[in-house]
Every structure is written in C-alpha cells, then in structure tokens.
Design goal:
alpha/beta; Rossmann fold; single chain; eight-stranded mixed beta sheet; globular; 186 residues
C-alpha cells in the first residue's frame, strides 16, 4: 500500500494551487475532483450556494489513483458558505469506505474550516484517525495563499503525515490543527 494521495476539488484554483505545492513538496500523487456540470457565471455561483446550504451531492468526475491503494488520503477543499464544498461532499460520500486514514486541508476566505472537518469526519465513519479531533488538518486563507505566506505550515502538515510521525490519539491534541495565524508547534 502506498503512503499518501492528495485529492483536490478547486472551483477557483486556490485549493489546486495548494494541492500542487503539497504534491511537489512530498512527491505524493494527486487525484482531481471536477464538476460534471461546469459552475461558470452567476448560475454556477448560485449552485455553489445551494449545494452548500442544502448539503447536496452534485455529480462529479474523479480522475486519479484509487484511494483504497493509499494509507492516507489528504482531502483539499474550499469552504463554501461555512461548509464543505458540494463536489468534495460527493467524493467523500462515494469513496468513504475506501479511505483508510483521512487528513484535511481547507482553503477559505474567513472561516468555516471546523464545519468542513466535522462533516468529513461524520461522513467517513469510525475508521482510525477519522474523528475530527484525531484528524490531521490545516486551514489556509485565500489571502495567505495568494501572498505565498503558508509554506512553513504546509511543510509541517506534510511532516505530520510521514511514516513514523506521531499520530494524534482520538483525544483532542493542540498540535494537530494548524490554523491561520498560529505557528506549527502550538
């Protein structure tokens, strides 16, 4: 079984930029989730809002390696309306039983990362390291990504997923979540 796979959904390109950097830093392969129906223009934006508020699972395409062949799957998704993006919700629903261990990177404008992590944990079930408290996770703001001010935290995130790195227990641990404005060791 291979070590880690990065699976990304990106509507604007911000999440994809972060996922690309993570893959280039670690050598991990990437799978990409895309909308079956494009989300361009005002109607696309309205669908984003409706998918989030109604927790819909829109039709998607997934192009990449089979997640079941990896010990860890890193899900990279934007926050929509303080919740999980619809296309990533669909991916998680379709692949939950194939995910051995999940880590999450969230991109956002202002907040909502906690809701995304909680929903992914609830949808993936009781597998090891899938509870919201035990999941390795990081949140990055769009401004931080545009200013290239996130590299150290992204490297720390990747380091926590390397074989032999101490994994958190199911109890809350302050070092697990790496949020904007915090150093990686706090």
């Amino acid at each position: 079984m291979e070590h880690a796979l990065v699976v990304c959904y990106s509507h604007t390109g911000v999440s994809l930029r972060l996922a690309d950097l993570l893959c280039s830093h670690t050598g991990w392969p990437m799978g990409v989730v895309t909308d079956e129906r494009p989300r361009s223009g005002a109607s696309g934006t309205l669908r984003c809002i409706a998918d989030s508020l109604l927790r819909r699972q829109p039709a998607i395409r997934y192009e990449g390696p089979d997640p079941s062949n990896f010990r860890t799957v890193v899900l990279v998704s934007p926050v929509w309306m303080r919740g999980l993006s619809g296309p990533m919700r669909t991916f998680v629903a379709q692949y939950a039983r194939r995910l051995h261990r999940v880590a999450v990177i969230v991109t956002m404008n202002t907040g909502g990362w906690e809701n995304v992590v909680a929903e992914i944990a609830a949808r993936t079930g009781p597998a090891p390291y899938v509870s919201a408290n035990a999941m390795v996770k990081a949140a990055f703001t769009s401004k931080e990504i545009e200013a290239d001010g996130f590299g150290g935290r992204l490297e720390e995130f990747a380091r926590r997923l390397q074989p032999g790195a101490a994994m958190p227990s199911r109890a809350p641990a302050p070092f697990v979540a790496i949020h904007p404005g915090e150093s990686a060791g706090t």
